[in-house]
Amino acid sequence: EPKAVKPTEARPVPRVPSDGSLEGLLLVLTIVWIFGSLLAFFFAIITVAPGWYQYYRLSQNGEITTGQLIRQDQGANWYAYLYRFNARPAPGRTTKTFLGQQSVGTDHSAPLVTSARVPIRYLASNPQISVIEHYFGPPPIAPFLFFGLATISLCGGIAVLPGRWQRWHILYRLHSQGRTTPATIIYRWRTVDENNNDLYCVAYRFSMTSPANPDAQIILMAEINQLAYRTLKIGDASPVRYLPDQPEVCCLDMDSLLQKNN
User: Fold this and answer.
1) How many Cβ atoms sit within 10 Å of the Cβ of residue 27?
2) What's the CA gap between 103 and 129, in Å, rounded?
3) H-state helical runs in the chain
């Protein structure tokens, strides 16, 4: 392992360089996730809202009258009732006879007797909306779980999107608009990660100027780069690509490393 005079700069924490492809994929997946969650969210609203809206209207503005069951059907786990009742559709109007139907699960209670007289709750402004008072109650809570999951999923995707976009856009700018300048290798070292896998690291420094700051700035960076570790020695020069307005966004130019390695 070659040695060199220790530079005065402290060894920086290495970062993993990226060409932006992973970030682009994650951005696309996040957008797909948001659209999928949005569809699930609207589907949940369509599924949940009508039943609860009808329940609210009947509980707030419903009126009670007496009706009669005229038909009953039974399935494996449900009862279906057809009933009629008299109601006045609006103040000043004559009383009319309306038909209604309702299905309930067999776990609610014992079936009602056909031709029995039962209380009917109906909406005064629209008697076509009615229920058997015996079975009147809030809709099942279970659909709310789907609505809650869709909401959490949608909010999570929206929260993640800005970070994904910013990371991809920075790397896109680096590889499409970044400038190159020579960098000097000042450290080479090998370490391990939490899984005891080898990591090959290099640190380098370069100087840059910008229209906003014409004085030369010395930038010190490090990255995990096995190709650079095996190709370059301490003191070697290698092109680095950086953003003039964000010089900390930089990476060794891979094309130059590949040419040297060949």
Assistant:
1) 20
2) 14
3) 21-61, 142-177, 226-231, 254-261
Report pLDDT digits (tens) over 97-133. Answer: 999 999 888 776 678 888 889 999 999 889 999 999 9
| pLDDT higher than threshold 60 for residue 4 | no
CA 148, 154, 158, 164 torsion-angle sign: positive
**Which two three-digit tokens encode residue 24?**
């682009």
Residue 35 has pLDDT above 80, yes or no: yes
Contact 103, 93 (CB under 8 A): no
Q: How far apart are CA 229 and CA 251, in angstroms?
A: 14
Cα–Cα distance measured from residue 135 to residue 180, given in angstroms and rounded to the nearest whole number? 75
Residue 97: in which H helix or E strand, if any? Answer: strand 96-105
Query: Please, which residues have CB within 8 angstroms of residue 153's CB and are 6 or more apart in sequence?
Result: 33, 36, 37, 40, 41
Token code pair at residue 68 = 């009669």
Task: Give tens-digit pLDDT for 141-196.
Answer: 877 888 889 999 999 999 999 999 999 999 999 999 999 999 999 999 999 988 89
Amino acid symbol at 238: S
**pTM, two decimal places:** 0.70
Reduced to 3 DSSP states, what percent helix, strand and coil does the chain have, rounded to the nearest 5? 35, 40, 25
| pLDDT exceeds 80 at position 211 | no
In 10 A of CB 83, how many CB atoms?
24
Long-range contacts of 80-85 (CB under 8 A, 24+ apart): 81/112, 81/132, 83/118, 83/120, 83/132, 85/120, 85/122, 85/127, 85/130
191 vs 35: CA distance, rounded Å: 42
Task: Identify residue 22 by its one-letter amino acid code.
Answer: L
Pick from 195, 198, 202, 192: nearest CA to 227: 202
Whole-angstrom distance between the N-terminal and C-terminal Cα of the chain?
21
